[in-house]
Specification:
Elements (H helix, E strand, L loop, with lengths): L6 E4 L10 E8 L2 E8 L1 H18 L12 H31 L9 E2 L14 E8 L13 E5 L5 H14 L2 E4 L9 E10 L7 E9 L7 E3 L2 E3 L2 H5 L7 E7 L13 E15 L3 H8 L4 H33 L12 H17 L4 H13 L2 H20 L6 H15 L3 H10 L3 H20 L1 E5 L1 H7 L19 H4 L5 H6 L15
Parallel strand pairs: 6-14
Antiparallel strand pairs: 1-2, 2-3, 3-5, 4-5, 7-13, 8-9, 8-13, 10-11, 12-13
Helix pairs in contact: 1-2, 3-6, 6-12, 7-8, 7-12, 9-12, 10-11
Length: 511
Amino acid sequence: MTDAPATTDTPAATDDASFPDVKIEDQGPARKRLTITISADAIQEKLHDSLSTLSQQAQVPGFRKGHVPAKLLQRRFGDAMRDETKNQVIADAYAKALEANELEPVGEPEPDDTMKELALEDGKPLTFSVTVEVTPDFTLPALDGLALKRPLLEITDEHIDEELTRQSLQHGTAEQINEGITSGDRVLGRVTATVKDAEKPFFSHDSVPLLLPRDQKDGPVLGLMIENLVDLFADKKVGDEVIIETKGPEAHEQEELRGADLIISFTIKDAHRIHPATIQQIVDGYGLASADVLREQIKLLLEQRRDQQQAAALRDQATREFAQKVDFELPEAMAGRQAARLLEQQEMELLHRGIPQEDVEIRVAELRSQAQDVARKRLKTYFLLRKLAKDQGVEVSETEINGRIASIAMQRGHRPDKLRTELNNAGRLGELTETIRHEKAADILVDKAKIEDVTIEQWREMNADEAPSTTKKSTTKKKTTPEASKKKTTKKTTKKTTKKTTKKTSKKTSS
């Protein structure tokens, strides 16, 4: 026999007849059912206001505006007015219920089955119920007492050479090809993605670009990490159809794709091969005096990336350690919008660190492929940083937003004003702001922590057993940044891993 759900009653405010009565029931971890009653007086007042507004705006033949009889207005517009008023009082009562009970929803409310049948009746109150997932309620632990490791890395000539190799491809020339497609080629295709046995595709587009990874066989398609992607396209030609069969990640933000068998059809329409630029062409492209000056500039760039990734490593450690000091219940089902928001924040952060766009796409696809428990840990971190930022009064200035946009724009090779417009049109400026706010909150933890510097070799050893992704890769001998070193696995660890989980990291300084 199960316990009855806990309930909380919020009585109507005595000095505000429009304030609703609210009954709250626990429906599971961070999930509440709100039963809200709007008084008859509040409904009557709102109907009167709606009728007054209508009388001032309605145009009826034979009457001057503002002089239409109330009975005529009710006869002509009554049903529509009541429906609109009903929606307004419900939305207003829901907002007041959240505010009065200090509930922060993390998804859209789920109305009960009777919501569609509701109607305003003269002299009667209106009662409705919704269920909503909310931000978990918990108390933050002490902010001090964390012990962190800071990886140290000296930028060497080898790192500079690797970055020059990457930039030679970035600034190279594209040759159109019709056959013999292989790793490193860029293809454009018509894509249809369907859940197996479904009648309609969940995605269809006539022109989807795809970069076949140069240093590994796995790669992202539609944000999903595909094993042996390079092999699937190997030796294909323009006009060929490539069928990709995969399984939706258990933590995917779209519920219908979680664990589902997916079939992706990619019909190749166009293909290009990148021929690397020469060092002199890169020098001329930047307007520099010599190759030596180019190497100096690249060293400064790599040092900047290292510092950004070093700061990110400290934040990651701090939030992981901090999360171990507190426990609270998470929503049973990650809302799709919330999961998508976390991925968008990760993308913004990776771009800010200086990681190239194609590598960011791989990392985001890997994050989407992570197990459900890993995704829930990320969600816990999100709630922790959100509460920490709120409690500490962390604010984000317009200058900080513009600076971050400029940094990301530089990585993408875009103009800052153009990128800002794109982010604004996509509704992602809020995500960018939240990313900065959470970073500043994590920095509060770092500032209070005890930090010990370690060598890059020690850092690799400490992180050797971490498995941030499930894609198949093999190891390389050299790593160039703390971010990349997290992916490093020792020979002993690699032997113990299965073929599907072995990692292959690229030789890119920026990865």
